[in-house]
Structure formats: C-alpha cells, structure tokens
Amino acid sequence: MTYELEKSLGFKINRTANKINNKYNKILQEYDIAPEQRATLEIIKYEKDVNQTKIAEILGKDKTTISRTLSSLEKKDFITKVQSDKRTNQIKLTSKAEEMLEKSASIVKDFREKLKTNLDETEIKTLVELLEKVTLGIKE
After folding, report:
1. Distance between CA atoms of 20 and 35, rounded to whole angstroms?
2. pLDDT in tens, 60-85
3. Is the separation of the CB atoms in 108 and 38 below 8 Å?
4. In whole angstroms, how large is the CA radius of gyration of the chain?
C-alpha cells in the first residue's frame, strides 16, 4: 500500500541521514565524540578565523545548537575559546583534539568512502548538485 510519507522527499532524505548518523555514531563511539562534534572540530581545524557564527553557517545549524556543541567540546578539553573582541571568541583546538582527529582520520575516511561505493563519480556529482538544489529551496 502506498501513502504520502513513502513519496515524501524530506522523509527519504531524513531516513538516509538517520541511517548514516547511526552508523557514524557507532564508528566514533570509541573516540567519545559525536558526528556533529567531530565535524565542528574539523571546521575549527581547517577554517581561518573560525567562530560560532561561521560554524553555524557551515553546518546549517542555529547558533544555540553550536553553542551547546562548543560547550560540550570545551568540557571534553577538545577546544579553548579566546576572546578576540567584546563580542567574538576565536576557537582553537587543543592537542587532545588534534590527537583524536588524527587517530580517527582513517576510520572516518573509510566510512566516507563506503558511502560512495554504489555510486559512480557522475552520480555522486549529480546527487550533491540535487541536494544543494533542495537546500536552496528551503526558506529560513
């Protein structure tokens, strides 16, 4: 029997994202870090002059969610915040975070590669373009 939920693009995307996150959570468990936290650490590592607003924009999350993520990372001693002016904190990785990113790099790379195993390069490019179009169609 067919019903509207089965045809829902949002449902299909969300179900796929949930499956990916569940598997990724299991992979990262031994490092005591969640996928969003690790993504945040990667952004801090590779982006210049990173702050809470920039992280929120990259991840497509609100600042309150990112604030909670950063607080959790600070409690785990993965980041430090340095006030650069009255309203902005620069965020820096600790050596503990650098070590965790290095130790988990190969398992994360393998996971990301496995996501693409049933797709060829053209399909991957098309999928990324289509997801970008869907994202652009969502008004905030």
Report:
1. 10
2. 999 999 999 999 999 999 999 877 77
3. yes
4. 17
In angstroms, rounded to a whole number, what is the distance separating the alpha carbons of residues 112 and 105?
Answer: 11
Rounded to 5 degrees, what are φ and ψ at 34? -90, 160
3-state secondary structure of 57: helix
Separation of alpha carbons 89 and 51, rounded Å? 6
Does residue 77 contact residue 96 with C-beta atoms inside 8 Å? yes
Q: What pLDDT digit, counting tens, does each position of 12-31 carry?
A: 999 999 999 999 999 999 99
- Collapsing DSSP to helix, strand or coil, 81 comes out as strand
Q: What is the pTM of this model?
A: 0.84
At CA 42, angle to CA 25 and CA 100, rounded to 5?
A: 65
Cβ neighbour number for residue 41 with a 10 Å cutoff:
23
The pLDDT of residue 121 is 96
| The dihedral formed by the CA atoms of 13, 68, 109 and 50, expressed in degrees to the nearest 10 | 110
For residue 6, pLDDT over 90 is answered with no
